[in-house]
Structure to design on (339 residues):
């Protein structure tokens, strides 16, 4: 249950404003470093921010974002995380110990009240991954409370109205966040080692991919009956599918997660459908719908029973992405071998 928000006194605001020692850079230049690592200036989704010290009470939203912090060994810098229940088995991940030491603040949507109650000095979330004008939680609203923000790079907004998301290839977004957070928290060597390992893992899988003309076409299905929610070129599945040796059917969509029409899916006739195992509708229910939906009856993936299930945390930006590339690559090689 959400606790009521206590009124903010002048003292409370003053304490909040001293939080992580972060400030937006006004001059567009890197701050001088007279001694040690700090101050350090970074750019995140087009905003430059200077940190005088590392944030000490970070609150994260969602599984992939939380595990980015864990992969960098920054659980001791966290005040808590917010995450729904339906994100798979967390006992089987490499960060099980970290999950055991950092408080889970809620399994509901993150709010400003949660950040205040946790005495957060930084909220790490993303647009549509916690941040949004509709819920009143934005970097601007947190700034008024003296709380800093870091926006997941996969979710950076672009376009005239800012409704579309994504500004770079998804795996590059993951590497960018690891490197940028490495600077913010003074763990650059750790970040560089992770990026090097992840790039090798992805390269090893990509090296086994078939020639472009022989790659099976792949459609990502998240959910939706009237219109399917899927992945464009800026969401994790695009790079996961492409590096694994598939031809992403929606690679021309300049957005991250978005909807299309079923007629588009039918016209592009994917040979494989990947189901995102997430949400209130189970993967089995999604599969049952796809295989019984009349307009899809002649789609290659349905006719040949080529439906592959992947967990949500594999498909959103997270340190699980490189392993997801390897796993999907094995499946797609089997598809191509079967003819």
């Amino acid at each position: 249950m959400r606790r009521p928000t206590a009124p903010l006194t002048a003292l409370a605001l003053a304490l909040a404003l001293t939080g992580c020692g972060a400030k937006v850079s006004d001059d567009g230049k890197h701050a001088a470093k007279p001694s040690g690592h700090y101050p350090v200036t970074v750019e995140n989704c087009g905003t430059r921010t200077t940190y005088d010290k590392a944030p000490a009470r970070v609150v994260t939203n969602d599984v992939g974002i939380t595990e980015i912090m864990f992969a960098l060994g920054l659980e001791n810098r966290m005040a808590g995380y917010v995450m729904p229940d339906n994100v798979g088995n967390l006992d089987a991940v490499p960060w099980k110990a970290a999950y055991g030491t950092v408080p889970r603040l809620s399994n509901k949507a993150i709010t400003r009240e949660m950040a205040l109650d946790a005495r957060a000095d930084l909220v790490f979330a993303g647009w549509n991954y916690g941040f949004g004008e509709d819920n009143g939680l934005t970097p601007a609203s947190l700034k008024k409370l003296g709380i800093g923000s870091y926006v997941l790079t996969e979710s950076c907004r672009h376009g005239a109205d800012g409704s579309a998301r994504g500004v770079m290839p998804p795996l590059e977004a993951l590497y960018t966040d690891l490197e940028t957070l490495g600077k913010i928290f003074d763990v650059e060597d750790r970040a560089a080692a992770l990026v090097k390992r992840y790039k090798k893992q992805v390269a090893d899988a990509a090296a086994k991919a078939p020639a472009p003309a022989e790659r099976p076409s792949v459609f990502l299905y998240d959910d939706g009956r009237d219109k399917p929610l899927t992945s464009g070129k800026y969401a994790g599945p695009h790079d996961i599918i492409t590096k694994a040796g598939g031809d992403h059917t929606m690679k021309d969509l300049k957005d991250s997660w978005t909807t299309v029409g079923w007629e588009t899916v039918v016209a592009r006739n994917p040979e494989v459908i990947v189901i995102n195992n997430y949400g209130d509708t189970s993967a089995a229910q999604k599969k049952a719908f796809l295989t019984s939906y009349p307009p899809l009856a002649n789609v290659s993936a349905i006719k040949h029973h080529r439906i592959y299930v992947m967990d949500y945390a594999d498909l959103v930006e997270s340190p699980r992405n490189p392993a997801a590339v390897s796993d999907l690559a094995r499946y797609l090689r089997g598809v191509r071998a079967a003819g």
